[in-house]
Each structure stands twice: as C-alpha cells, then as structure tokens.
Amino acid sequence: MDDGAVRFEWRGAFENKELNALHAECFAHALCDDDWWTQVNHFSLGWVSMRIGGALAGFVNVAWDGGVHAFLLDTMVTSSLRRKGHAARLVEEAVTHARVSGCEWLHVDFDPHLRDFYFGRCGFIATDAGLIRLR
Question: From residue 90, how far is each of 9, 72, 96, 128, 135 by CA, in Å?
Fold first, then answer.
C-alpha cells in the first residue's frame, strides 16, 4: 500500500504519458507524445523520478557524454508542489548518482530566474560557457 510519502528513485520506471503531461505543465507547452523512455535509456546516464502516492510529481534527466561529463536537463516539479524543496532534492539525488557513476563534472544551463536556485540552493558555480542557437 502506498502511503502518499514522497519517494525519489534513480532510473525509476515511468510511463511516457505521465512524463509528457508533467513536461507540458512545467514548460508550458502543448501535450506531446514523445518517447521519453527510449530517449533516456539511450542517451542518459540516468534520471531521478519523484512520486507521491504513486503519481509522478517530479523528474530530472542526467544526460552524459559517456565519460566524465554529465548534464542536468529538464528539472520538473508539478506546480502544486513547488517551493517545498522537492526540486533541490531531485538535483541532490542526480548529483549523488552522477558522482557514484564516475562523472567528474555536472553541467546545467538555466533561465535567469533560476539562478538563485541552481547557484544558491544546489551549489552550482558560475563558469564561462558558450552557446550557438541552431533554431
């Protein structure tokens, strides 16, 4: 029996439908039919899922280069549970598992309004980086 407790799981099972719904909510776009399961299993070191009462309520993807660099992508928490420390806990779990997997670096890109979260709460440091917009 699921007691409604918050559970975090590294490489936890999920349905594409529930992750597509969470992504659409968190990034304010139309619902898609992406095959997240195939994508993360092919390209990612892992991911952290957060469930409450069995429902997917948070997620973060940890992509990697196959070596020492990992990349934090798509940190998501359903709107009703934001600002309660859940996103930071997702990132903490991702950091732990990337480290255990032998990665030396964890990179993250984010919008300016998330600066305090990633630098202040999660412990990332500012670095020089470059970006070319392809589309």
Answer: 9, 10, 10, 25, 29
Report pLDDT for 99. Answer: 97
For residue 89 the two structure tokens come to 């806990």
Distance between CA atoms of 55 and 63, rounded to whole angstroms? 23
Measured distance CA(93)–CA(128) in Å, rounded = 25
The per-residue pLDDT of the chain, averaged, comes to 95
What's the rounded mean pLDDT across residues 83-101?
A: 96
* Residues in Cβ contact with 87 at an 8 Å cutoff, skipping those fewer than 6 apart: 58, 60, 75, 76, 77, 117
**Contact status, residue 21 vs residue 60, Cβ threshold 8 Å:** no
pLDDT at 1: 42
- In this prediction, residue 2 carries a pLDDT of 52
What pLDDT shows up at residue 131? 83
Dist CA 99 CA 115 (whole Å): 23
Q: How far apart are CA 126 and CA 118, in angstroms?
A: 10
